[in-house]
Amino acid sequence: MKRRFFLCILLIISMMIPVQAAPIKWVDFAVPYESLKYAMEQDIATFEQEQHLGWIEVLALAATDTGGKCPLTSVKKAVESMKKGFDPEQLTESRGKLYRYYHQAYSAVLGGLLGHYAIEKDGQWVATYGLKAFSPVASGYGYSHCDDFGVSRSFGFHRKHLGNDLMGGLGTPIVAVEGGVIEAMGWNRYGGWRIGIRSFDSKRYYYYAHLQKDHPFAEGLQEGDIVQAGDLIGFMGRTGYSDKENVNNIETVHLHFGMELVFDESQKECNSEIWIDVYQLVRLLSSHRASYQKIDGVWKRTYPFQDLDLEDLQL
């Protein structure tokens, strides 16, 4: 009897404890460039209007109707529905569950890319709302790339390519796509000289690999440092595929750029990490590139940048 009573008490207590939803375990980010661009433009155009069409909400609604494919027609349809006052919270239970999944997933991918920022020009700070993330390749430097996510790799062990390779010139300046904290910096047998930067909301881990031999990183940079979007972090090279440090074992000069999503800290380094295809994002970011000049041997940002959404953060 006592045992049964004790079990009943445990059952009642367990029912009183709030149940937390399990973190997302997989994201297939397949939104085309045209859809990203259109949704972003709608977000920016309506930002100061009473009915702001947030691009994450628009894309999540389009994804709900298309299984995540989000062709441009579905995004335009979602925009028109929301302009007419449709609230995604009105979706049926099954579709509502799908919408919430895509909203959470796309918030993790895109959450830090649009916002308030300021650029200093001619001694004056000009504030605006828009795309505040940058292309990883500095302005004035050419590069080429294709959608190579998932392509087979064999060095060390057979695996899939979990990023996007941007081919360019040796020593091309590489910048932080988004502001964050440098979590990893140094040599890796696969990535060579590489930097890992965690976004301020901890949802995104940006990985920049195969940096230049002998001079991989921006001067004075170290693990634990805070960087702003567009800050110089390193230089393009072809290091890696070697247990020995500072070795060029990659045939082609390029930047390996990747993004890992982290919904729970246990996912950060495990056998089921969530890396997404960033090719379409890189295409989108190509319209916003940070400018640098080398003056007396020192790289200087042409237009100083400030993320106004982080004004309370001591940078």
What would the keywords be for this entry?
alpha+beta, Glucose Permease (Domain IIA), 2 domains, eight-stranded antiparallel sheet, 17 strands
Total strands: the figure is 17
Radius of gyration: 22 Å
Number of separate structural domains = 2
CATH topology of the largest domain: Glucose Permease (Domain IIA)
Query: Structural class from helices and strands?
Result: alpha+beta
In DSSP terms (H or I, runs of 4 or more residues), the helix count works out at 6
The oligomeric status of these chains comes to single chain
Descriptive report:
With 315 residues, this protein is α+β, with helices and mostly antiparallel strands. The protein is 24% helix and 26% strand. It has helices at residues 2-16, 33-45, 55-66, 72-83, 93-110, 279-285, and strands at residues 114-121, 124-131, 143-144, 152-153, 159-160, 164-168, 173-175, 180-188, 192-199, 204-209, 226-227, 232-235, 254-261, 274-276, 292-295, 298-301, 305-307. Strands 3, 6, 8, 9, 10, 11, 13 and 14 form an eight-stranded antiparallel beta sheet that branches. The longest helix is centred in the N-terminal third of the chain and has 18 residues, at 93-110. The protein is globular. Residues 1-19 have low confidence and may be disordered.
